[in-house]
């Protein structure tokens, strides 16, 4: 079996919730550095039910967010709060959060250690081939360019870590990108995830999702 850390990927996407410190959105320029202690208090309100006490979810299909990029987590939560991303099960959970609340929770989860996971051997060769080399004939880009060879992502660029992410969650998100249901790659990211997933089959998506589970 292939071993790795268990964190989110992907998207994020946490069912983060809590008590607001004030009015809704505030300008990013006014944010103080994230406070992990404050984030822990906010996250403890209801995030634990879906994402576990430390961000390592025990529920299949829910993303692991421990150790995820704080920049990525903050952006995804803000998109969900502001109606620019379908919040799914998180509907209403972030409505009364300020930008600072989201920043604090993002920093808290980013500070948490991720767990080791195991990938299945079934389809592992195909998943590795796609992750590292893409599918030239289908114009599917290699995942390593943005998510790094070990799946750790690129925090400065806002590309999420995929290492150890829930297979079910990665499958769901790649299919959502493929069908155009998820569009969080708009703007500066120029639709790169939708372009990458557009020509992938269900089998190829599953193989990649299994492979990243074992990355570390």
Description:
There is one protein chain. The chain contains 9 helices and 2 strands, in the order βααααβααααα. The protein has 216 residues and is mainly alpha-helical. Helix 3 runs antiparallel to helix 4 (99-110) and helix 5 crosses helix 9 (202-213). The longest helix has 12 residues, at 70-81. The protein is globular, with a radius of gyration of 16 Å.
Layout of SSEs?
Elements: E1 2-6, H1 36-43, H2 48-51, H3 70-81, H4 99-110, E2 115-119, H5 124-133, H6 144-147, H7 167-178, H8 192-197, H9 202-213
Antiparallel strand pairs: 1-2
Helix pairs in contact: 1-4, 3-4, 5-9, 7-9
Query: Which percent bin holds the helix content?
Result: 25-40%
Strand content: under 5%
Mean pLDDT: 87
Q: Tell me about the largest β-sheet.
A: 2 strands, antiparallel
**SS-derived structural category:** mainly alpha
Shape: globular
Tell me the span between the first and last alpha carbons: 13 Å
For the biggest β-sheet, the strand order reads 1-2
Q: Using the CA coordinates, give the radius of gyration.
A: 16 Å
Q: What oligomeric arrangement do these chains adopt? A: single chain
Strand-and-helix sequence, N→C?
EHHHHEHHHHH
Low-pLDDT sequence parts: 1-29
Number of strands: 2
Q: Give the count of helical stretches.
A: 9
Summarize the structure.
With 216 residues, this protein is mainly alpha-helical.
Entry keywords:
single chain; 216 residues; mainly alpha; two-stranded antiparallel ribbon; 9 helices; 2 strands; 5% strand; globular; disordered N terminus
């Amino acid at each position: 079996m292939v071993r790795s850390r268990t964190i989110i990927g992907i998207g994020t996407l946490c069912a983060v919730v809590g008590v607001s410190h004030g009015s809704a959105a505030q300008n990013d320029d006014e944010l103080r550095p994230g406070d992990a202690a404050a984030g822990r208090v906010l996250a403890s309100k209801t995030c634990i039910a879906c994402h576990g006490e430390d961000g390592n979810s025990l529920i299949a299909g829910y993303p692991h967010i421990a150790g995820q990029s704080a920049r990525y987590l903050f952006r995804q939560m803000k998109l969900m709060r502001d109606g620019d991303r379908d919040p799914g099960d998180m509907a209403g959970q972030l409505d009364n959060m300020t930008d600072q609340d989201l920043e604090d929770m993002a920093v808290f989860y980013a500070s948490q250690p991720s767990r080791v996971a195991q990938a299945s051997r079934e389809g592992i060769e195909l998943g590795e081939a796609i992750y590292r080399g893409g599918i030239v004939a289908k114009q599917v880009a290699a995942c390593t360019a943005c998510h790094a060879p070990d799946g750790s992502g690129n925090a400065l660029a806002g590309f999420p870590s995929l290492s150890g992410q829930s297979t079910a969650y990665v499958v769901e998100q790649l299919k959502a990108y493929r069908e155009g249901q998820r569009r969080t790659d708009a703007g500066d990211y120029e639709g790169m995830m939708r372009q990458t997933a557009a020509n992938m089959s269900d089998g190829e998506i599953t193989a990649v999702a299994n492979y990243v589970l074992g990355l570390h």
